[in-house]
User: Fold these one by one.
Assistant:
Number 1:
Amino acid sequence: MIRLMNEDTEIKSTPLLDCHRQAGGKIVEFAGWWMPVQYSGVIEEHQAVRQAAGLFDVSHMGEFSVRGPQAEAFLQRMTPNDVTKLVDGRAHYSGLLTEEGTYVDDVLIYRLAKEDYMVVVNAGNQAADFAWLESHLDGAEVELADHSKDTALLALQGPKAPAILAGLTTTDLSAIRYYGFAKGEVAGHPAILSRTGYTGEDGFELYLEPDAAGKVWDALLEAGAPEGLVPAGLGARDTLRLEAAMALYGHELDRNTTPWEAGLDWVVKLEAGDFLGRDALVRQKEEGVPRRLIGIEVTGRGIAREGYILSGKDGVEGIVTSGTWSPTLEKAIGLGYLPTGAAEEGEDLRVTVRKREVEAKIVAIPFYKRPR
Amino acid sequence: MYPADYLYSKDHEWAKVDGDICQIGITQFAQEELGEVVFVELPEVGDTFEAHDEIGTIESVKAGAEVYTPVGGEVVEINEGAAEDPAIVNQDPHAGGWLVKIRLADPSQLDELMSADAYERFAGGEE
């Protein structure tokens, strides 16, 4: 289960590795980092996030700073969402696309101030993303810097997250809406408090200085324990995001996949002017999108996993991009791609699980929506 | 941790021999590696297998794994309890979480298996 690395590839550690070991975390290599995959167990951590709260270390994520008079124009040219609609204190979900309209990465963009943005990228793409942005500067008046090493990131997720965090900060959390953020302090340490996450629950992501991360981690766990807060690992993060049908780079998104195919049409603002990949996206829309992301529910006995072959209507084939046991629904679920004509909700499917065909069907996504 | 009267395979199965009946399950090490087991698929009574054949699958939240029989023979009993409540494989892998009982076709196949001490060293090296 642990991917072998080249001997000369150094595996990186977040500032919290000792905290994870102390908390009984099982440490594995993920995207070049030593990360906790679980503590008490994936299902228990998953349920805690759905019912109370969980605390994740996601310091492996990368953070870039994009500053200068042309920062907005540069990001507008490099991403499909409309950066000009962002105001100070607001973030949005977007992507870095190739000329072909396919994903270099999916990213979050924060507007810290008029000429000051933060771009948050996936750990495994950090170096490639930075090189990508740098190579497209074309003399723009932009200062691009990689702050990944000086930024720790905790995700406090679950219905109890606002109450737990409120006890450790003077920032008015009720004033921070979904995809809003504020600069403030948590447990006395400077932080960006962002109402975002990757679990389908309410919650916050806290950008911190690396030296403060361990103290904030401990303070949150102590303050949140009476509310049911537990440390949660990458295993639960994956089952949670999959129930919420949030795409994971390298699985649902890659350099062969467009936002149309991935069902991320809402991220693309064609009317907002030109951006890298726009022409290709316009063309694909005119010519027809060849395949679509689908939600899979396994109705037979088995679990669909990444890479398993799907067979749909009239024998057309597709592939599973993510699959797991859903602790909330107590059934096997997955995401995958099928040719557009066969990707209709309600259609029967078969998924090949270890040389055996198992019944499945196409269902609506997300699989889970939090009660509001 | 590993019962001294069991034998162990490199695929992390254990075998408990009683006359010509061999009870088979996965080891503590295997269940820890897999994590929470949510699905167990077993063969049917009467099926016959060669040593090292795949006799079933175990799926956890994180991953799936094949179960290989360390010995050949006919399946005489399966643990329906493990199929119905897969968590038993995590909670009690060396007893209540057993998987199948096989009537040994060739007792000499047991000679290829490891003792508890040898297995503990082997599993330690896999970590």
Number 2:
Amino acid sequence: MNIAFGALVLLIALLPGIVFRFSYLKSNSIRKSINSGLLSEAIFILIPALLVHLVCTPLAESWSGRPFEFDQFFYLIVPPGKDGLLDLQLIENSLSPFFLYILLATCFAFGVAKAVRYVVVYYDLDSRFKFLRIYNEWDRYFTGHALSQKDRKKVDFVYVDVVVTIGGSRMLYKGTLDSYTLNDAHSIDQLTLSQVYRRRLDDDGFELDRATGESPSPATSKRYYQMPGNYFIIPFASVQNFNITYIMLEEIAEEEALPETVPAVGTDAGAG
Amino acid sequence: MTVVQSDKFRKIKEEDPTKIDKLIRHWVRRGLGFSAEPVEVEGKRYILKPVISAEPIDLPR
């Protein structure tokens, strides 16, 4: 057997571990949700593969009634030379059961990875134990996993205030965060917002003067400009900083008094 | 990457985006001293509210 064949056999044997790793660390934005090194990746594949085989081989043996020939498997990976240790007839007969075993072990690894991921997220273990980490830092904030589980359940959407420098002046964009993308360096590439309002950062508002009831700052309608369009995309390279607010839609009682009603921004002269 | 958004929020946004627009408009105002005005969805009235009272979060650098 040549080295390439041995490597192929080893790869097939590691398949449950590979599936476990990708199922556990699945991210919608990038292939690798966390920036792990080669050694971490290898450990993250080898250990689950070993554990899956430790569980599955006794089950397979008892189910099939045949012992698992580990020595023959070893000789497939490491050629035994010419001393006749490799039983080719046995290998030929075991080919179908072996692939069936790998298939079932891989399915088992997939299920276990999903279950472990669910438990880790549910009990917030990934924030306590680094080796269990599923989300990168940005994922944690934007998926609400930076919050406690109790608070996370309340979140209806994420609202952001983004400071962007355009032509020497700083603009503040406010809107609901729809999505974001990460680049290969695991940093944000761009943010996609909707229901966006924009104003110059210098045009900060002030509280109403209690005595006169007037505002010393220009009216909200004059400071804020509602961005047209459905989605507004901000390249993250132009962002100086941003603020994240987790918002919930709270149901209020029918008899509860209506809060103050204000006309639409851009049409009123109200203070803000 | 999908951002956390509840089914309730998505449903309102798909069925009548103007209601979300209205809530956000008032939310912008709320940050400047105004309260949110409720919108009615299937007989229930909703306002926007921060999940946690705004404690600054240390963002990753």
